[in-house]
Amino acid sequence: MYVDPEAAGKGVPSRDVILVSAIITVSLSVTIVLCGICQWCQRKLGKRYKNSLETVGTPDSSRGRSEKKTIKLPPGGKMVNTAPVPGQTQHDESDRKTEPRSSVSDLVNSLTSEMLMLSPGSEDDEGHDSSSRENLGRIQFSVGYNFQESTLTVKIMKAQELPAKDFSGTSDPFVKIYLLPDKKHKLETKVKRKNLNPHWNETFLFEGFPYEKVVQRVLYLQVLDYDRFSRNDPIGEVSIPLNKVDLTQMQTFWKELKPCSDGSGSRGELLLSLCYNPSANSIIVNIIKARNLKAMDIGGTSDPYVKVWLMYKDKRVEKKKTVVMKRCLNPIFNESFIFDIPTEKLRETTIIITVMDKDRLSRNDVIGKIYLSWKSGPGEVKHWKDMIAHPRQAVAQWHQLKA
Questions:
Q1: How far is CA 265 from CA 174, 237, 303, in A?
Q2: For residues 46, 115, 167 and 259, what is the CA-based torsion angle, rounded to 10 degrees?
Q3: Scanning 200, 214, 240, 382, which has the fewest C-beta atoms within 10 Å of its C-beta?
Q4: pLDDT in tens, 211-224
Q5: Which of 64, 68, 63, 66 is nearest to 187 (CA)?
Q6: DSSP state at residue 289
Q7: Comparing C-alpha atoms, which of 341, 339, 349, 391 is closest to residue 48?
Q8: pTM above the 0.85 mark?
């Protein structure tokens, strides 16, 4: 750096020193002003969305199940649901799974560097594949063939770590069994109420099936959540070609459930952040953006918006919703909502995120849902626990939308 000899002799700062000092002074002033704007926005936001915790209604979450129908197979075989095989343990039903943070404005967005990102593919999420690739649980079953009686035996044993589909943070799972390509005839297990790790131990017999026909079939299992008043929610599926199985003796399998191929597993994803403030007894839910949403309109698009329900002990407490984004399958919302949640009620609290398609002339369609609580699916539980573990920091994560 060049220093003027005369200025140096007189003790006067050089021109470069003066320039650097001026830049530092201006930068500090701008930072102080922006911090003030950020705090003002947060106070305004808090006043706007301040609401007390009070219950206003109770959804009917009871479940029931009608008796099974008698199923007649095409000529060549029949299916029988038998009692559990003697000598095997019975289980009661009681036996029991980066994007930059968006704040109030783009200005605050550019200043926030504390946010923890848990988006798919990021290094921070390494070792947590359930967050980036939805974990639908797994199912245990066995299959074998009796050559003397020409009977295929399929036993549905149990499932583990199923995702929650109900408001209560649990599911009422049952299994449908098909021998594809026949989709008209199926058998079903019993429904296990409020159970994410159900044990069925139910055996099904496909009698009168010649072996040469059996090996041409594909065993297809679909796990669903039973709903009394609406369509059953698909949880996941497993298929196994029987020509790849040694059927001479009963073979037992553990298989990871995959999204159902009927399209129920392709509803899109939503990026949202959670920020827990224990001193203020509040949670800020920031709906950031969605991608690859399922098209619900005839024109091959949707008009999405997001509803956020605060639930306490299966009771609806408070609802917020975003604006509608017209004709968009990859909308950016950037909307934040504050919910007052006392710390002692946190374990009984569920936040339900529902992405809707707005229809002017008919009922709005549900594109997909997310349940956030202590007892949701593995990806949702991880997000919830990360929020608790990092108070006053916005923790963002992508979530697969569920039916």
A1: 18, 10, 20
A2: 150
A3: 240
A4: 999 999 999 999 99
A5: 68
A6: E
A7: 339
A8: no
